[in-house]
Model the fold of this input.
Amino acid sequence: MKEIIFLGAGWAVPTKERGSTSILIKTNKNILLDCGGNVAQKLVKTDTPLTEIHQIYLTHAHTDHIDGLPGLLHASWLSGRENDINIVGSPKTIGKTRNIIKSYEFDFPFNINYKEIEGKGSINDVQYTEVEHKDQSLAYRHKDITYSGDTKPCDNLQKLAMNTELLIHEATFPSTQQKKAIETRHSTVKDAVKTAKQTKANKLALIHHKPEVKINQEIKEAKKTIDIDIDITAPRDLDKIQLN
Done:
């Protein structure tokens, strides 16, 4: 049984139910997808030791996806961390992240292993591909779990996510704001549902939607329009999905 915990399922502006994006995949070496918001506290709420986060995969360097990283590293250190941690992302993302961490002048007793990746490939059982947002944005897939990061619909994501069990997809805008989504290189709810159908995903989790998106209504309308019959959810912070 594999457990996915949505530490942060929201957009850049937090609400009472959702903070900035961060997703935990619980394995023998816990994986963190993005690191937005108060990740350290959310991990504590899930009874996940801060010292047992081994790998962090960043989709891009916008603040709502990385601003929890300094606090997580600091809290992990104060919790007794001695084991190294791996941080993976594009050259632009790693460059910005490295500078942010360096500015705090931490004196950690463990190593931060930065790994720059580009294009398409795999690292530590995680596949990746570039997607169409900004600043060398990436999507990731760990076995049967695919995470879009921020992106407009694109072929690279479709190929990465084909036949995935769980597709975690951003849905920043309501379906009525297609033009705005295209301009900002984001997705609407309908875009995400279409991608789920095209990739034959078994489950779809919609995250990163703006507070004004009436997400349950949007899901209902999109399922009718696109004619898809799969489990579609809009997780709140600390919600969990379990896969066999």
In short: The helical segments are 39-45, 63-66, 69-78, 91-103, 155-161, 178-184, 189-199, 215-226. The longest helix spans residues 91-103.
